[in-house]
Amino acid sequence: MKKQIVLATIATLATGSVYATKARMNALGQDQDRGSFYIDDTRNVFRNAARINKTNNYVVTEWGDATAAGGASTPKAEGGFFRSAGSFNYGLYLGSDITDQGGDTALAGYADSLAGTTTGPVFGETGFKGRSNDLDLFFGGDAGVEWGGRLHYANGSQEQVAGSSKKEQSTLELGLGMVMGDLNAYVNYVLNDEHKVGDNNADKFEDDGSMNIGVGYNWMDFTFYVDYKKQGAKYTNATAAANTTDQTVLNIGAGYIKEVSSTSRMFTDFGFRMTDAEDKDGTTATNNLEASRSELPLTVGFETDATSWLTLRGSIGQNIVVNSQKTKAGSAAELSGTRDNTTNVNAGATLNFGKLMIDGTIGTNGTTGAASGTKSGALDLDRLMTQVAVHYWF
């Protein structure tokens, strides 16, 4: 009897560890922002709001830096709670900046970062007010078909009696999702995201139809998925023509989960990813920049409940066979080649204290440069990501 109780306890903890945080997603080589295409995790509610019907009655807090570079770490805090109420589920989350494109510093184009260069147009207005105090509201239910919605809101302003001009920022995003048996679908659309400077809004940075849509289907231990993401923005000022930047990412792939034992799991995902980005300078065409990538990313991860109080996980990923990048800056010749060293290794752990879990992650987070070979070393200590999260079920 005692042995059965111990096994039941371990099984319960193993199930609980399936639902964790951004730290867990990074450790398993998944998307820290919207979660995984095929691994169950509480973070998935940001991709498909209908997932709130399976992940509720918990509080989560997170802080850390998954994008540290050059030693300039900018730790960020966020968190919220999710709860069931009869046949409905709701949640509130603070501090998420998934679709943030603006900031207090220069607003660089997507193609610039994609190519690892600043050759293209940089939206050099440094006076914009950054997005902050973000709020996400979730609501969902199950009427034979699981459904859910998410509303993201952020707003801020700054004005001085004398000196600099007025600054304003506003953001509104809508997310909708459904799960029907083995089929799931979702859409996340930015309704509005504007950063304005000047008494007459002389300088403006605004979103240009950013969205994320996708569909997934479970078959046996496999999940097949198609995901499309578009991000676009436009910068205008009183003295020059508009600068625009656009990026599209298409992911087609499959994920596989293998239960190695009652306390251990292996995760594998493989697919095709195509990325296109373009910056256009409305004033100086020679600053225009185009970039594209074609990749076959493979990720292998594991997770094991080493003891009743400790879960360990890790992953390794790399672009295999197809790993190409092309960039073209202005009238210069096109630069093409393979991306240098796309191997990423991440590791993490969860400490289980009954209903309380503490997650941690450390890894390289894919610091890959341009096709010209300007990438730093595979294990650049200045570019390590570190995250910590606390997760409590009630």
Question: Describe it for me?
Answer:
The strands form 2 sheets. The chain has an 18-stranded antiparallel beta sheet that branches. Strands 4-5 form a two-stranded antiparallel ribbon. The protein has helices at 2-18, 22-27, 110-115; strands at 58-65, 76-85, 88-94, 107-108, 122-123, 135-142, 146-158, 167-180, 183-197, 203-207, 211-219, 222-236, 243-261, 264-280, 289-307, 310-329, 335-338, 344-353, 356-363, 385-393. The chain has 394 residues and is mainly β. The chain has one domain (2-393).
The oligomeric state of the chains shown is single chain
Main sheet, how many strands, which sense, barrel? 18 strands, antiparallel
Helical fraction equals under 10%
User: How many individual domains?
Assistant: 1
The outline comes out as globular
Approximate strand percentage = over 45%
Residue windows where pLDDT falls under 50 for at least 5 positions: 1-18, 68-73, 103-107, 366-383
Helical segment count: 3
Q: Which structural category do the helix and sheet elements fall into?
A: mainly beta
β-strand number: 20
Mean pLDDT: 80
Order of SSEs, N→C?
Answer: HHEEEEHEEEEEEEEEEEEEEEE
The whole-angstrom Rg is 22 Å
Write a concise keyword list for the protein shown above.
394 residues; 18-stranded antiparallel β-sheet; 54% strand; globular; 3 helices; mainly beta; disordered N terminus
